[in-house]
Design goal:
- By secondary structure, the chain is α/β, with parallel strands linked by helices.
- 36% of the residues lie in helices and 23% in strands.
- The protein has nine helices and 14 strands.
- Strands 2, 3, 4, 5, 6, 7, 13 and 14 form an eight-stranded mixed beta sheet that branches. A four-stranded mixed beta sheet has the order 1-12-9-8.
- α3 packs parallel to α4 and α6 packs across α9.
- Bound molecules: N,N,N-trimethyl-histidine (AVJ).
Length: 325
């Protein structure tokens, strides 16, 4: 049971220097539907809140994905002979261990490249993994994957690019295609791409995962306002915004919003006053849900093809293996 009171902002933010943040926030808040990027959830506290989410009974993706990885990775790694694992958005690398264990079992594991925006999590994780996997080179890359991958110049092949957790769902289709095309451009012929995707299913089950009964997701959502206060010196009052999450059956995605509970004006230095009317919202995240056909369309557009999708159709979450088309 998560103890929210124990998850506080205790350490200063350590992120990729982001001179574009103010401009991006300004553009998002000037749109008719105000919008902020979900990448701003993840400071230290946001990362801890997300970890608490992954342990909630309603939040099925993480534990389903873990079980799929445990079931598949030994055979997949034996087949592929992967020497380098590149992980997009590595976070605390909990799932990476399942892949690394399977790589180590083949005796071929040479290099692990975790990519993340959060330097804090990345450096802790790298030091720990070096101890756990002697003989494995760990070369973290600090990067905003929506912009670049920032990969090391030399990587032993074949490599596996992994993008887990269903984070592809955070990207609108054009951005999702750009991201996958960026991965495709970094791939060599024997390389593979492993992606976790949350699947379309019963709407009530999806909505429950984003409206947990303990209010952790609501806290996670409001944390973005604290990040803006800290990073930009804004004066958002998180208590004046309510969490809302709903499934859009046409676009096949969850939308998370922060709804202003009253008329209010927020001051953001360098940007000036931003007015909210009561009931007006900021969209803070989309989490798109896929099926095999929609993943296939995404892959096609990015120059990839589905090589394997060996899951039970009843599984609420999928793992897909892609290869250069
Ligand atoms: C980390 C993007 C996969 O979309 O389910 C969890 C983030 N947001 N609860 C998701 C999230 C609210 C999560 N991803």
């Amino acid at each position: 049971m998560p103890n929210l009171a124990r998850i506080r902002a205790t350490r200063p933010l350590e992120r990729v220097p982001n001179p574009g943040m103010l401009a991006e926030v300004a553009a998002g808040l000037a749109a008719p539907q105000k919008e902020l990027s979900p990448k701003y959830f993840y400071d230290q506290r946001g990362s801890e809140l997300f970890e608490a989410i992954t342990r909630l009974p309603e939040y099925y993706p993480t534990r389903t994905e873990r079980a799929l990885l445990e079931g598949w990775m030994p055979e997949l790694m034996a087949q592929l002979g992967t020497r380098t694992l590149i992980e997009l958005g590595a976070g605390n690398a909990e799932k990476s261990r399942i892949i690394l264990d399977a790589m180590r079992a083949t005796g071929l594991a040479e290099l692990y490249v975790p990519i993340d925006v959060s330097a804090t999590f990345l450096s802790l994780t790298a030091a720990q993994l070096r101890r756990e996997y002697p003989g494995l080179t760990v070369e973290p890359a600090i990067a905003d994957i929506s912009v670049e991958l920032n990969l090391p110049r030399r990587m032993p092949r074949p490599a596996l690019f992994a993008f887990l957790g269903g984070t592809i769902g955070n990207f609108y289709p054009p951005a999702a295609i750009r991201l996958l095309a960026r991965v495709r451009a970094a791939m060599e012929p024997g390389d593979r791409f492993l992606m976790g995707v949350d699947l379309r299913k019963d709407i009530a089950r999806i909505e429950a995962a984003y409206n947990d009964s303990q209010g952790v997701t609501a806290e996670f959502n409001r944390n973005m306002l604290l990040v803006l206060n800290h990073e930009l010196g804004a004066d958002f009052d998180p208590a004046a915004f309510e969490h809302r999450a709903f499934y859009d059956t046409v676009a096949h995605r969850i939308e998370m919003h922060l709804v202003s509970s009253r008329d209010q004006v927020v001051e953001i230095p360098g940007l000036g006053p931003v007015a909210f009317t009561a009931g007006e919202s900021i969209r803070t995240e989309i989490s798109a849900k896929y099926d095999r056909a929609s993943v296939s369309a995404l892959f096609d557009a990015a120059g990839l093809r589905i090589e394997a999708w060996p899951i039970d159709p009843a599984t609420p979450f999928g793992l897909v293996v892609g290869a250069p088309a």
